[in-house]
Specification:
2 copies of one chain form a homodimer. By secondary structure, chain A is mostly helical. Chain A has 7 helices and 3 strands. The first copy, chain A, has helices at 11-31, 37-48, 54-61, 65-77, 99-107, 111-119, 129-150, and strands at residues 52-53, 81-85, 93-97. A 3-stranded antiparallel β-sheet of chain A has the order 1-3-2. The interface between A and B is large, with 66 and 66 residues. Chain B binds a DNA duplex through residues 20, 23-24, 27, 36-39, 53-55, 63-71, 73-74, 86, 89-93.
Chain lengths: 151, 151
DNA sequence: GTTAATTATATCGTTCACGATGCAAATATA
DNA sequence: TATATTTGCATCGTGAACGATATAATTAAC
């Protein structure tokens, strides 16, 4: 009874579990360099474009600044990046990679490939991934707007 | 440069974000009854089959007991469930719904529908959802085994 | 039937997420 | 140019996740 409450019918539980398990797959690879998965995400944002204010990083990751700020402080303590007050706008904190932060890109060069191949399976192949990306992107865009206007 | 590190090419970031955003969509609906999303998951497990040991609940959710135990204690404190020592095996803690816990199912009856329709979009429809489920299930099964054997 | 290994749960410490709130700098308005 | 509003970031508290470790009960090995 109550088919709609069955765990096996829940999209969210699948996303939640798949997300956790992939993050776990990253763990041994990143842990070697003292990184967590969210920290790895910050690195990817800064490798794409260095010297960004906290807000831009948070927006890119669809996170709140109160999540990102402590994360950045820990990374600063590790010597991966610096946080300096913006010059034209003193409210901003400009986040910049250190040499160590930039060099991590070379050290982690095998990570995307390793995790990518760990995920490949019967229904998830180079041919089907674009379709999966499209569905996840649609869900994300749908909820991104929705969660703001609804509550 | 370094296309492989681009955030837009990452499956994990999409899963992580989609998971977070759907959980956020649940938040106002569950918050009305003082529930979090992981607590809602526990309820679904127990609605399916009441009176389970901690371990069975954890296994069903693919979580560790050190995550589930504090979660259950909070729910016990809320009067949603009880935790009693197993009779045949004194190591087990049998988790049982209270009247309040069972009644929550009626109160939350509109939640699955509400979240379901919030997620529907161009590429995610009743026709495409089974395919999405299949891909996520395959990923989960792949990693479930992998994460155990690899590290 | 002791001792050793295993199992079920709990405790601890660290790192997210995130709502709520605070504060200072910048911008808009009067 | 005062005052009000908005913006960017930080702080605080709570609830997960999860690795590491501990403890007690059960089972296996001898």
């Amino acid at each position: 009874m109550e088919e709609k409450f069955r765990l096996d019918n829940q999209l969210c539980f699948r996303l939640y579990t798949a997300s956790r398990l992939i993050t776990q797959a990253y763990h041994p690879l990143l842990g070697e360099y003292g990184l967590t998965y969210p920290q790895y995400l910050v690195l990817m944002v800064l490798w794409e474009k260095d010297a960004q204010p906290v807000n831009d990083i948070a927006k890119r990751l669809l996170l709140e600044t109160n999540t990102v700020t402590p994360l950045l402080k820990r990374m600063e303590a590790e010597g991966i990046l610096t946080r300096t007050k913006g010059e034209k706008d003193a409210r901003q904190m400009i986040v910049k990679l250190t040499k160590k932060g930039r060099e991590l890109q070379n050290k982690l060069t095998d990570v995307p490939e390793a995790v990518g191949s760990a995920v490949l399976c019967e229904s998830v192949t180079p041919e089907t991934v674009p379709g999966l990306f499209k569905m996840l992107d649609d869900i994300i865009n749908q909820l991104k707007d929705n969660n703001k206007t609804t509550d």
